[in-house]
## 1
Amino acid sequence: MDEAEALRRLGEARVGRLATADRQGVPHVVPFAFAVDGRTVFWAVDRKPKRSKRLKRLDNIEANPNVELVVDHYDEDWEALWWVRAAGTARIVVDPDERDRALALLREKYGQYRTALPDGPVVAVDLVRVSGWQSR
Amino acid sequence: MDEAEALRRLGEARVGRLATADRQGVPHVVPFAFAVDGRTVFWAVDRKPKRSKRLKRLDNIEANPNVELVVDHYDEDWEALWWVRAAGTARIVVDPDERDRALALLREKYGQYRTALPDGPVVAVDLVRVSGWQSR
């Protein structure tokens, strides 16, 4: 799979799984919703009940900005499997224009965000490597 | 979600995503098939074409045995989302009896393994923490 096709599948995926790691290299992985803008992936922290404690993935990113995300298709026919992995560095979006743009992209992709936009931090992952694999 | 329910969902999931990290804390995440035996997760490396180079996840585990895996349900109805995360330490299975047991569990769970068992390394993840989340 070439990079253009990998980026296309990344952009269309409805859910990905995001891996971060803390300063000691202990990994953490969660499913997440995201939008792709060129070679940047944006995601946002939803308002949720009991969200008083900081999210582990935000702590990890502050301590260690290296992240990797994967989107994939699982099928009981293992000849139909594929995945796309994207590695990059993550940063909390502080520029208000970039935040607005990221939230607009998220709302455009996810109808679920149209009624209630996330009000937590927005994170950008600037991609440095995108690769794909496909079973035959 | 209590731990028993989290372990039940982990065991039934057909695919998970496994996060490892290298010695520098750079995370890596891939979809994977696995079987659960008590508080141990087993997976095996398939024979694949062009598998001459070592898998990154095996290199990572040798350098840093900390791993985390996640199984989840994605649904366009975000009230139906859930995930289970399991963290632990990974090791290559060297005991032949344990390897046989792991491969038997994998074959039992996945019909796809009945015609061709994986012939690469088998990895055990001894779980130290299992937690679940469910949208309401």
## 2
Amino acid sequence: MRFCDLIIKKRNGLKLSEKEIDYTIKAFDEGEIPDYQMSAMLMSIYFQGMDINEIKYLTMAMVNSGKIIDLSSIPGIKVDKHSTGGVGDTTTLALAPMVAAAGVPVAKMSGRGLGHTGGTIDKLESIKGLKTELSLNKFIDIVKKVGASIISPTSDLAPADKKLYALRDVTGTIDSIPLIVGSIMSKKLASGADAIILDVTTGSGAFMQEYKDALKLGKIMVDIGLELGKETVAVVSNMDEPLGFAIGNSLEVKEAIDVLKDRGPKDLRNLCLVLGAHMLKLGRVAKNYEEGRNRLEKILKDGTAFNKFKEMIAAQGGNTEVIDKPELLPSAKYCTKIKADINGYIQKIDSRLIGESAMLLGAGREKKESEIDLSVGIILKRKVGNKVKINQDLAEVYYNDSEKLKEAKNKLFSSFVIGDKKPKKLPLILATISQEGVKEWE
Amino acid sequence: MRFCDLIIKKRNGLKLSEKEIDYTIKAFDEGEIPDYQMSAMLMSIYFQGMDINEIKYLTMAMVNSGKIIDLSSIPGIKVDKHSTGGVGDTTTLALAPMVAAAGVPVAKMSGRGLGHTGGTIDKLESIKGLKTELSLNKFIDIVKKVGASIISPTSDLAPADKKLYALRDVTGTIDSIPLIVGSIMSKKLASGADAIILDVTTGSGAFMQEYKDALKLGKIMVDIGLELGKETVAVVSNMDEPLGFAIGNSLEVKEAIDVLKDRGPKDLRNLCLVLGAHMLKLGRVAKNYEEGRNRLEKILKDGTAFNKFKEMIAAQGGNTEVIDKPELLPSAKYCTKIKADINGYIQKIDSRLIGESAMLLGAGREKKESEIDLSVGIILKRKVGNKVKINQDLAEVYYNDSEKLKEAKNKLFSSFVIGDKKPKKLPLILATISQEGVKEWE
């Protein structure tokens, strides 16, 4: 097989066979296909797309580049969760213990933050002593005993995807639906769970800024999951403003703890309940969505979820004292505020700008190798639809270093749009996609 | 400038500025932009195209990656010729001395053959002693004294194009009009001629198989030439069957000698006269096309062109004895024939298949580093429109090695399509493009 002929085949809009896609991923992973040919193939895929079969072959070829984690020793239906990324999205931290407390085992591998979005692993590392790089045995052991564990991916989890993603990142081929689906679904399938819940975010801070693109991505991911034998549900959630109030690692841990204490921001709590209810249904511990949701509400109220979180933290070596006393989490030396300069209603809070502002403070990484400051970040004091008067607070800025403070504050300030009329607010959940079809918000 | 942002800009269909294109070519040539990013850019250009300004910037950036050859010491208007490549196309060999004999200096750099098309430099090397790698001074000296010289390109002739072409060749980005125009025109402009004649071939053996694509390519090349201050004329010529009868290096030299002796195949002779007449007009030694053509016909008849060829060969160190006695040129050990298996008229002779057949015999290179056999090749005994009876000759095959003979003969045989009716034959020249506009064959 001459790889250049395969590039031309895809470039000309033809479909690649299973054998051709297998060869492509295997030979690329083994260094036989050079990066300069692979990037031409990726750009051809960007322009010509892939049909559902090609995406399936791509996904499986990447799964097979590594090992599929064997979770069969853990009793019950293991349900994995993935989000396409948001700003201030600390859902996983609250969701994993909530669901585990209800009896659904969660063996989750999470990533680190990059660019304007944060990562669950970074957030967890705000907790002193907590280890996120555990052996597979230890990981499975914790899930068996506690019901939930969150760690960094092992190196043999779809390694071809890792190599491919690094190439996509520098060749303008990130935002291609078939490549996104292949990347996400290969990791989820290799992680060994039995069922998958996907949170496809949309809006200014999300990867898929347009709702219709997010819906399309969700549909294809559900199709691929089902085709490959995993029950899969996706929700399309609105990330037009940040989720919750906190943006920044230890600040978001505090907010997750709030949710687990049956408090916390309404939108974050709601998203945890929605995703959790689906997970309980997928895990067959609830007959339907409503039953799942009621169960979780109870679990939040009676403290079971909160205690489960502490158990999980302890099992991973973390100091549980900080869970009871979140004020012991890393905190920034200084705080400043930004205030409204006119009266009105908050029309819009640009999530991307907020994420970038937090990154400037040191909460996020510009490059993979950047160091981050776990203590800094932003607390929103107003959200979309809130009334605000001149000189009232819009947000608090927590910082240690004033070098880029001005730039960060400017970005933060410019993310708020204030207007006369109370804006219409989109619901948090815009669509739910499952094997039963698509249910869109009306 | 982050190069990935430029890839995304082009990918999204936006136009690149002069500064951006300059940066791209310079940084790529200097190894600052890695191949894997450049190939993603090339594929984006393949899909999104470039407008006339972008192509102009691209062309000039590649010209400026090397040196522009200074031909100003040669008196007269120097006219360069380029063909997009054909099968059995030995035009340059006859054309250069014809035009030089009429007083237009020809300082031409030519390439070697690759794939199913041959190269003028290889053909010339059939002549014992002839050097094709001369110093620039020696080259200019010969043009001054003799009026014509044909050599291999110097290494500093648009070096960025050389690097870019090598990358395009393995990434499926050869057949992109902006990239083709940039590649051809940068070399022509760097070669230092005052005016340019372009032969854009179309048909089965040509790079542009469709007439409309060839026409488009020709128009853009003429526009770019004119924009960059060089009078440029293009003809679109029909390469649906091979040009002349001979395919193979020394066989084509013999055929060029035939033309210079005022004999030879009608189509090859005609193409030389057409291109030559335009060159005489461009070189201001003929008032118009007709005057140029008449002049060249006279020059062929009276032996001036033939003598000019001998002079040129001698100046480059070649043995002129072979020009008088072409039977001394390298010749193959064996000859076999392929014959018609039905009665009828030749409907079609697939040039690409013929070129591939000659390559299998050893006349062409599969890869750049392949060795070629100058003596082998094919002589067509029938051309499109000719009548043929069962067992009459279609072509002669000259070979030294019988290893791939069967495959070569099969390809050759399959290139002939024989049918009942006398086919309508397209003219050789399908269009002429100049600053006065496009004149299409009616």
